Amino acid sequence: MEGPLGRHRALYKGPAAPPWKETYRRRCLERLKSSRERLLHRYRQAGPGPGALLVPEVMEREWRCLQAERGAPGERGQCELQQMPQDPDELAVLDEIQQELILQEQLVIEEYERSLQFDEECLNAILDGLDASNRIICPVCRKNHLTVRSHSVVCQCGLDVPAQDMTEEKLRSLLENTITEHSHRCLHNPEFTVTSGMEEEASLLMTCLVCDFWMILL
Q1: Where is the RPA-interacting protein N-terminal domain (predicted)?
Q2: What is the DSSP string of 126-162?
C-alpha cells in the first residue's frame, strides 16, 4: 500500500504540481552546474563517502532566493532571511528535486573519476613504456616507441617533429607535466596530434575540444 509520502509525491507528478517547482528545479540545476569546480574541490578534500556534497547548500540557497522574490518588494534580494518549507506537500516536491540533483552531482564526480583514471593510464602508458634503452611510448598512437634524434623526434606511426637539443628525459618530463597541468583544469581527455602548415615545420600539439586548452609541445 502506498504510504502518505508516496501519495504526496503522486499529487505533484501531474497538473497539480506547484507553480514554483520548475523554476526552482531549473535554478538548482544551473547553480549546481556553475558550481562544478567548487564541488570537485570539496570532493578532493572530503574524498569518497555517502551523502551529497553541495546539493543541500544549493537547494537551501535557491529556495530562499525564490521565496524572497515572491515576497514583499522590500524583502526581495534578502535571500538569507527565508527558511526552508515545513509543509509536507512542499517537502515531497523538494525531495523529488533533491534526488535529481544528487544524481547530477554523482554524475559529475563519476566523470571526474574517469578522467583521473584516463590521465593515470595515459601517464603510465608513457612512463611504463620506458625500457632498458629509456624509450618512450608515442602519445599519438600509444603503441610504438618514440625515437629521439639529434634534431627531431620520430615514430613509426608517422610522427616526425623537429626538436632541437631534445633528450628522452626532457621529452618524458614535458609529456608528464603537460598532461598533469591539463588534468588540473579539465575533466575531459586531451588529444595529441601532429600538425603542419604549407610552409611551417611539423609540431606536436596537445589539445582539448572541451576546455579549449592547447599547447605546442615540440
Answers
A1: 7-46
A2: HHTT--TT--EE-TTTSSSEEEE-SSEEE-TTS-EEE
Q: Does residue 16 register a pLDDT over 60?
A: yes
Q: Cα Rg for the chain, rounded, in angstroms?
A: 26
Mean pLDDT of 30-42: 86
Cell triple for residue 101?
Answer: 540533483
Nine-digit cell at 97? 528535486
Contact 32, 104 (CB under 8 A): yes
Query: Where do the structural domains in the chain lie, given as residue ranges?
Result: 146-216
What value does the mean pLDDT take over residues 84-93?
76
Burial class of 60 by CB neighbour count within 10 A (0 to 12, 13 to 18, 19+): middle
For residue 94, pLDDT over 50 is answered with yes
Whether residue 133 has pLDDT greater than 70: no
H or E element that contains 197: none
* Rounded Cα gap, residues 210 and 135, in angstroms: 31
Question: In sequence order, which residues have a C-beta less than 8 Å from that of residue 189 and are 6 or more positions away?
Answer: 115, 118, 208
Q: What are phi and psi of 138, to 5 degrees?
A: -65, 130
Kindly give, in sequence order, each residue whose CB lies less than 8 Å from that of residue 218, ignoring residues fewer than 6 positions away. 153, 161, 162, 163, 166, 203, 204
Q: Alpha-carbon distance 59 to 92, whole Å?
A: 14
